[in-house]
Structures are given as structure tokens and as C-alpha cells.
Amino acid sequence: MELRQLRYFVAIVDHGSLSRAARVLHIAQPALTQQVRQLEEELEAQLLHRSAQGVIATDAGKTFYEHAQAILKQVTDAKSAVAQSNDKPSGTVALGIPQSVSGALALPLLTAIRATYPEITLLLTEELTGNLIVQLKSGRINLAVLFDDGQLSPFASTPMVEEEMMYITRANSQYGAVKKKTVTLAQAIKAPLILPGLQHGVRPRIENIVRSHGMSLDNVIEINSVAILKSAILADIGATILPVAPLLSEIERGDMVALPISGERMARTLALCASKNIPLTNAAAAVERLVLDVTDDLCRSGKWLHAEGLARE
């Protein structure tokens, strides 16, 4: 198996066509087809399904595509690590962040990167926590912001921030707590709760806290998209328990109301994680330091609402 075969295969899947991939790669289509055939023979699996409309990856091809992307990225990182200067890091760094964190962190981080390291290209990936863990393990991303649920031992992790989770409803909602400044946990879980799925880091935290009080979540509407979750809350389909960051603009406009949950410290801890097995390039290490600095600044200034920066060794 050769690196060029991996590049050829990834290009075919990305373009959905052997002819288009051949043009981009500047290779004759018969030669490209032969390379794919050799790859399939070596793997003893069909990687592509060919039709009049183009080509798509088979199930085996989809699995191989993920590994091929990770391998090619690590090769690129290795070349960058050799060529980079400690004084002026450059190259591409892939950072994964959960959907519910991007509203607070993404724009300030992009601004800081452009000002501090103009020669670094930052690729931001917004995903569910479970997907970020898979991508970080495989090397497809260099760094990831993950929820510290006590299971981050496979990674090199640095504490970032602790966010308070609050009970959030539409303004004047039927599920709102009228003229109250707080709600109890028992009151909060009476409403239909719109929550992310269990593969999202915040959901297991809520489930564990509710169970520790001898209660259960019996009326959950599961939505993994922040945009759809917002629409559901504004339609008064239910309430949610989340940090305020992903819903901040709606809360500041007065479209939503966020109340602390009394009697129980409901919070989630975020950590910045890297692989223990794949060394960081100089550029990735620079981004790692900058993420922590930006997080601390946002917490100190109060721009990351109901969030507290965590001490580090």
C-alpha cells in the first residue's frame, strides 16, 4: 500500500467521480482505476460502488476513507514539524469543539489566531463529543475541547473551564418559573426537556445528577442540533438544561430566560485534549497555548457567562 494510493482514493470519494478525481490529480483515468483495483485486491474488499451517476464509498470504503484521511494528515503534520520554526510556527491545525461551546469560543479564538499566528491555518470542526473523540484518537484532528467526564485518560488533557448549567425556557413559557429567580431540580425535570443525545457530553452529566437524587428523566425530547434545539425552545415545545453559551444571543435579546437550579451544583468541566501517541507540531502546540489563554481571558472578562477558568499545574 502506497501513500499515493491513499491520496487517490480520498480524492475519488471527495469528488464522487473517477474522471473528476483524475483531472484534479493530473493522472490518466485508466491508471487511477488500476491503482484503486490494486488497493481493493490488497485489502480484499470492494471500496467503491460504481454507477452511471458516479462513485460512492461502500461500507468498507467509508471505514478505509476515515483511516486514509487520518494517515495523510499525520504525514502532512510530520513534514510540517520538521520544517517549522519555533519562533514562527506555521501550518494547518485542526481543532474540534462541541456545538454547545462554539458560540463562546470559536470567534474569539479565530480572531486571536489571526492576530498572533497569521501563518497558522486553523481548521475548526464543530461536532458532537463522541465524534470528536473518534477523530482525535485516529489523528484526524490535532486538538479537541472535550467534556471531562472522568474518562479522558486516553488523552493528554488540560483543564479549561467549568460552566454552570441552567434551566432555560422561552420567555413567558408555559414551562417557566413565574417571578422566581431559581428553580429546583425536581421542578426543572417536570417540564418536557429538550436535550442532546447520550453521545453528547452534557447529557450523561445531567442523567447522573438526576439519578443521584433518586429521580429520572421521563419526558425527554432528544435533539442533537443546537439550531433545532433553539427553534424547539422558542416554539415552547419544552425547556432545556444547558450552559448559556449556545443560547446566549436569545437570552440577551429577552427571547429566552435562564434560571439557576437551586440545591444542586449543575456544571460541566471542559478540557483541552490531545493524543498521547501523536506528537503535536509546533503550530498545534502554539494553538493549544492560545486556546487556554483565550479561555482565561473570556472568563476573567465575563464574556463567557457563568463560566469559571480552572487552575492548571
Automatic annotation (TrEMBL):
Transmembrane segments: none
Keywords recorded for this protein, A-Z: Activator, DNA-binding, Transcription, Transcription regulation
Domain HTH lysR-type: 1-58
InterPro entries the record matches: LysR_HTH_N, LysR_subst-bd, WH-like_DNA-bd_sf, WH_DNA-bd_sf
Family: Belongs to the LysR transcriptional regulatory family.
PANTHER family documented for this protein: NITROGEN ASSIMILATION REGULATORY PROTEIN NAC, TRANSCRIPTIONAL REGULATORY PROTEIN NAC-RELATED
Protein name: LysR family transcriptional regulator
